[in-house]
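Consider one such protein record:
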Amino acid sequence: MSHAAGQGAAPQMTHTLPPLPYSFDALEPYIDAKTMEIHHDKHHGAYVTNLNKALEAHPDLQKLSVEELLAQINKVPENIRTAVRNNGGGHMNHSMFWKIMKKGFDTFTGEPGGDLGNAIKSAFGSFANFKTKFNQAGATRFGSGWAWLLFRDGKLVIESSANQDNPIMDGGKAFFGLDVWEHAYYLKYQNRRLEYIEAWWNVINWDQVAENYFHAK
């Protein structure tokens, strides 16, 4: 991926593919190395390339972060809006997704503590109840999309969205999300989406999620 032209005060003119914070095989056996490689390098890479292409003739939009761009998606010119929505959403969603996963599993609890843990229990009754509802959001999302834990109107809620849409597009603040596109799991799990979802809980980086929660709040 090309990097921003120039240094210092010059605005960043291109969006770039963030490196994976771990090796392709770090999430084995839950998420296989080949899936991670294709998912990051090819799928996320293509979103970044296509987003930059869509913004080529719009220097005013090139100055915006992907979050700013998507928060005002309805102001983006109509002829590039779909490309920005799909590819900008794909870029933003995956940039978060890689960071909320890590090698290894907190065998002591397997769930978050602190403010995040308390907020989840307060909103959903228990962590187990939250997990059930979140799994359901991912499992029942028809076709491709995401399941999210987010703030909406100051409340902690679970939602799902189609394709690469992100809750930021309509005023939500998501800080935890699960990719349920088939390319995220098909090599290993084929059509067994629920099995993939269950396995995914073993690689959550709760420290990162807690940090995301703090910023979203």
About this structure: The first strand starts at residue 145 and ends at 152. The mean pLDDT is 93. The chain has nine helices and three strands. Residues 33-99 form a domain with the Helix Hairpins fold (CATH 1.10.287.990).
